[in-house]
Amino acid sequence: MQLKKIYNTEGQEPILDHIKVLRYGKKQNFTQKFINRGVAEGFLSMEKGRIVLHTDPELHYRIVRTPGMYCVFDDHPLDDEKAAMAYLA
Q: Per residue in 32-60, pLDDT tens?
C-alpha cells in the first residue's frame, strides 16, 4: 500500500487536507505501528471487525487475524513459545 498526504499550504503552517491512495491491494497486513499511528492521526478507524481507512478513495478491510503468534499448520492462536511447543507436541 502506498499513501500520500496532501497538505493545504494556504496558511503559514501546512495543514493535512486528506490522504490519497496511490496503490493498494485486496489483502493487507497492517502492522500494529501503522494502526496506532493511523488512529492517532485520525485517518484510520476500527469498527465491527473492520479497518476503515478514511482516504481518497475510502478503503474497508475485514480483520481476518489479530497480531500475535499462530501455528503455521492450522492458524491456531498461541500465547508464547512454550505454548507453541506444547501444542505441536
A: 899 999 999 999 999 999 999 999 999 99
Q: Return the closest-CA partner of residue 58 out of 43, 71, 46, 78.
A: 43
Distance of CA 20 to the CA centre of its chain: 16
Domains in the chain: boundaries = 2-88
pLDDT tens by residue, 8-25: 988 889 888 999 999 999
Please tell me the distance from the alpha carbon of residue 46 to that of residue 53, in angstroms, as a whole number. Answer: 9
pTM summary value: 0.72
Which string of DSSP letters, residue by residue, matches the chain? -EEEEEEE-SSSS-EEEEEEEEE--SS----HHHHHHHHHHTSEEEETTEEEE-SBS-EEEE----SSEE-TTT--EESSHHHHHHHH-
